[in-house]
């Protein structure tokens, strides 16, 4: 005996008639498009730091980067020792001039600490605003330590300032293998006339830099 077919409803018939449409990629959230707070577009330091901060956010939130804080920790240690020497020189319970040798030692120690701090900041850190200790980019697994520095050129005509990002690294397995990529772009590509940073443009710019790094490191 033949089975009776189940009658279809109007809703099912409409669903069958509609074409199958592929799911679209999720749109970016509003906070990922433009920054919530505007900056002073006439302040070069604020312009540079806002773009640098956005790149740091991309590194850690999307690329799995972890920052190498060894130089920061070393500077904190040196500054702490300098503070201790300053406190000892002022509050050690020996009256002057009996404590003159102690004062001389504290002044000499403070000068050494100040010199070490300067050397760390100038020679080791340099102009880098981010130094990684590891990341999750498979194509750059031999380059866990990647340094990023930037420069804002305001010497051109007003309104034509440019931002240059530099990425450099050296292979942990082969000392002679390394890379250095620089990419220059107008600041107006990132910041609009009202001082808001277009975060999606910074993301596109950084992705282009990463592609160049991967190609050069092969």
Structural class: alpha+beta
Total strand count, please? 5
Give start-end ranges of low-pLDDT stretches.
1-6, 8-26
Q: Based on CA inertia axes, which overall geometry fits? A: globular
Provide the number of structural domains: 2
Estimate percent helicity.
40-55%
Specify the number of helices: 6
Oligomer: single chain
Structure description:
This protein is α+β, with helices and mostly antiparallel strands. It folds into two domains: 36-65 and 135-217, no CATH class; 71-124. The protein is built from six helices and five strands; from the N terminus they run αααβααββββα. A five-stranded antiparallel β-sheet has the order 1-2-3-4-5, with helices on one face. Helix 4 (70-91) packs antiparallel against helix 5 (100-125). The longest helix is centred in the middle third of the chain and has 26 residues, at 100-125. The radius of gyration is 28 Å and the shape is globular. Residues 1-6 and 8-26 have low confidence and may be disordered.
Which features characterize this protein?
2 domains; five-stranded antiparallel sheet; 45% helix; 16% strand
Quick rundown:
With 218 residues, this protein is α+β, with helices and mostly antiparallel strands.
């Amino acid at each position: 005996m033949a089975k009776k077919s189940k009658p279809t409803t109007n809703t099912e018939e409409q669903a069958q008639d509609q074409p199958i449409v592929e799911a679209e990629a999720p749109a970016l959230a509003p906070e990922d498009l433009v920054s919530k707070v505007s900056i002073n577009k006439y302040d070069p330091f604020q312009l540079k730091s806002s773009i640098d901060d956005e790149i740091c956010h991309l590194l850690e939130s999307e690329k799995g980067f972890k920052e190498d804080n060894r130089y920061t920790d070393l500077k904190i240690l040196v500054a702490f020792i300098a503070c201790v020497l300053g406190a000892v020189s002022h509050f050690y319970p020996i009256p002057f001039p009996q404590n003159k040798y102690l004062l001389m030692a504290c002044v000499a120690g403070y000068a050494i600490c100040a010199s070490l701090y300067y050397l760390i900041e100038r020679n080791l850190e340099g102009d880098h605003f981010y130094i990684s200790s590891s990341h999750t980019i498979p194509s750059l697994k031999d380059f866990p330590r990647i340094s990023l520095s930037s420069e804002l050129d305001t010497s051109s005509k007003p309104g034509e300032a440019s931002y240059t990002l530099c990425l450099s690294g050296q292979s942990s397995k082969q000392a002679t293998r390394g890379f250095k990529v620089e990419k220059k772009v107008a600041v107006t590509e990132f910041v609009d006339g009202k001082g808001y940073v277009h975060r999606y443009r910074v993301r596109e710019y950084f992705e282009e830099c990463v592609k160049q790094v991967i190609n050069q490191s092969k």
